[in-house]
From TrEMBL:
Residue span(s) of domain Alcohol dehydrogenase-like N-terminal: 25-139
One Pfam assignment: ADH_N
Transmembrane segments annotated in the record for this chain: none
Signal peptide range in chain numbering: none
Lineage: Bacteria, Bacillati, Actinomycetota, Actinomycetes, Pseudonocardiales
Cofactor(s) needed for function: Zn(2+)
Keyword annotations from UniProtKB, A to Z: Metal-binding, Zinc
Protein name: Alcohol dehydrogenase catalytic domain-containing protein
Keyword ATP-binding: no
Native source species: Saccharopolyspora taberi
């Protein structure tokens, strides 16, 4: 089989690899049918990643189950499933607590798409072995489009987690979104659907702002801090200076969620944060804990994640198309139902 391999800045290529095989009765083999790039993949392809290439890339996809071990009861060959980005066992204390991104059965940071905690391959591959498949794989609910939900492995449920609990605790909250990619747009859609009274989306890209306006958000190319302006701020730029703007715009006891991968250091307004009493969270996303609720919202018809998909591209064009600048490209292919 082939796996798409990141080899240099803005360069990926197909490389041959052995077909994955079941290594235990709890494994599954899946074939991605709709795979997309995470916002962090764009930073990796631009040369800002924390690990030197080469390695198999990709950690967001809907896949078709091809084969399963004898102990698997949750899915069967032919099923369409979401493959969460973090590798987890489902049985350890962390997993039972909903912290699957911190599973203690695997090395720290075990994930698809980057060899941070071992080499688990990438989801831009023809075939992928998924360990602990009963715990990991999440069936795609009937009626949901695999292309629209290709980001359900990471960015879509992450966006839900950064907004939904806060709006439940603070109905009608005012939400500031400072973004550079798909996460911020998903946040706008979810925030409006769940009753935010005001959503301001900040992004220098006019095409992104147009999508946000379609979701009912106000938009701006850039802003200075808006003192006591928002109950919730979401930052997904990877820039510490923009994170500081978000923090300085919160009401007393406000909350800032950051999905930015801050590969470069910077300074935060710690004294102002102290005086305002804000809370900030920068965290890996524990997809399993809230993916069912996020998928339920997608099924409700109250949100339209498919509007963020910028391009639908044939699987065979991955090496040429992935390094290009797209908001949220989805790469698709036809795969037999089962082996």
């Amino acid at each position: 089989m082939r796996e798409l391999t990141y080899v240099a800045r803005r360069t990926v290529e197909w490389r041959e690899a052995p077909d994955p095989v079941l290594q235990s009765d709890r494994d599954a083999i899946v074939a991605p049918v709709a795979a997309t790039s995470c916002d962090v993949d764009s930073m990796i392809l631009a040369g800002h990643g924390p690990i030197a290439p080469p390695y198999a890339i990709g950690h967001e996809c809907v896949a078709r189950v091809v084969d399963v071990g004898d102990a698997i009861s949750h899915v069967v060959p032919g099923d369409l499933v979401v493959v969460p980005w973090a590798v987890s066992c489902g049985d350890c204390g962390s997993c039972r607590s909903g912290l699957q991104a911190h599973c203690t059965s695997v090395p720290h940071m075990a994930m698809f798409g980057a060899p941070l905690g071992g080499d688990w391959g990438g989801l831009f591959s023809d075939l992928v072995r998924v360990p602990w498949a009963d715990a990991m794989l999440v069936p795609l609910p009937p009626g949901l489009d695999p292309v629209a939900m290709a980001s359900a492995s990471d960015n879509w449920p992450l966006s839900w987690r950064m907004v939904a609990p806060h709006l439940q605790a603070r109905p009608g909250a005012r939400v500031l979104v400072i973004a550079r990619g798909s996460i911020g747009l998903y946040v706008c859609d979810i925030a409006r659907a769940l009753g935010a009274s005001d959503v301001l989306y900040v992004d220098p890209d006019p095409a992104h702002r147009e999508i946000a306006e379609g979701y009912g958000a106000r938009t701006a190319e850039a802003i200075e801090p808006i003192h006591h302006g928002f109950d919730l701020a979401v930052e997904s730029t990877g820039r510490v200076d923009q994170l500081a703007v978000a923090l300085r715009s919160l009401v007393p006891e406000g909350f800032c969620e950051s999905a930015g991968n801050h590969f470069r250091p910077g300074e935060l307004p710690l004294l102002e944060m102290y005086l305002t009493g804000v809370t900030m969270r920068i965290a890996r996303d524990n997809v399993h804990a809230h993916l069912p609720d996020a998928l339920d919202l997608a099924r409700s018809g109250r949100v339209e994640p498919g509007r963020v998909v910028s391009d639908v591209i044939d699987w065979e064009d991955l090496p040429d198309a992935l390094p290009e600048r797209h908001l949220k490209p989805v790469f698709v292919r036809e795969v037999p139902d089962a082996a």
